[in-house]
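User: Fold this one for me? It's ABC transporter ATP-binding protein.
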Amino acid sequence: MSAVQGLIPQPSGLDREDDVLTAEGLTKTFGTRTVVDGLSLRVGAGEILGFLGPNGAGKSTAIAMLTGILPPDRGAVTIDGLPLGGRTARTAKSRIGVVPQEIALYPSLTARQNLRFFAGVQGLRGAARAERVDWALEVTGLTDRAADTVSSYSGGMQRRLNIAAGLLHRPKLVFLDEPTVGVDAQSRGLIFETVLRLRRELGMSVVYTSHYMPEVEQLCDRIVIIDRGRLLAEGTRDELVAPLGDGLLRWELPAGAPEAVRRELAAHGRVESEDTPGGTALVITAHDLARALRAVTDLAVRHRLPLTGLRLDRPDLESLFLHLTGRAIRDGS
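Assistant: Here's what I get for ABC transporter ATP-binding protein.
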């Protein structure tokens, strides 16, 4: 655990009465590899939870267990007070909506025909089905294009219809997996508004996964970050980035750089070391980024050290994520 990770808010119990989802100790092993290792989290009523992890972090496996697609080897999931297993599994699953990243629509059918089909799969019939289809089209802003075939839709419109299909049974909890991948700014804004309406008008909770960090920062009430199957951090955006101080300063030093450099930089914040192919990188969690930068340039002059490997990061989810996991969110290594 890094020094920054040790200061970040961690889960504080899973016994809130208004939680729509609780997961305790979820573990999944494939062969000798543990993909998810003792994961615990919660989602409150009406909460939008950002769920982040780099590729290969166990995020997809975790979501499969949270939605009842994959049974855990150990641990338990509860949806709206009902165990997601055994005799209550069917009822618990009926309170979940899942919108996959892949477009799960029939391109040769119209939007209305697609939604009528999926509403029927959910057991809706007659007037109830017609009402839900009209509502889903309205809430996603597609009423005026309901009679057009999906093949004529833009990518953003298909994304919105994909969401509509997952809302027809009005679940209490919706999982949205990368809902804005490949869409333009206007469509992203409409998807944002749809998510906020679900919470505002129906009190729905949302688990939202995205590789686009500004999107998560803007939309989500609380964020969890997992890597290698374990929860690394949980909290609001401000709580998560607070331990980064004014920002991060990373300075790559050649082998044999004086130890005095690290000691002097410690006056400006917490200093951690990372091995690099050419030597060592010092990562300073700076109290005052400008003063820390001036100290680095002064040390570089006095000790004749290069500044070519210098990088500044203001505190945001991207820099926090990289610092916690050592990987950018799309890295697979």
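One thing worth pointing out: Residues 1-5, 11-15 have pLDDT under 50 and may be disordered.
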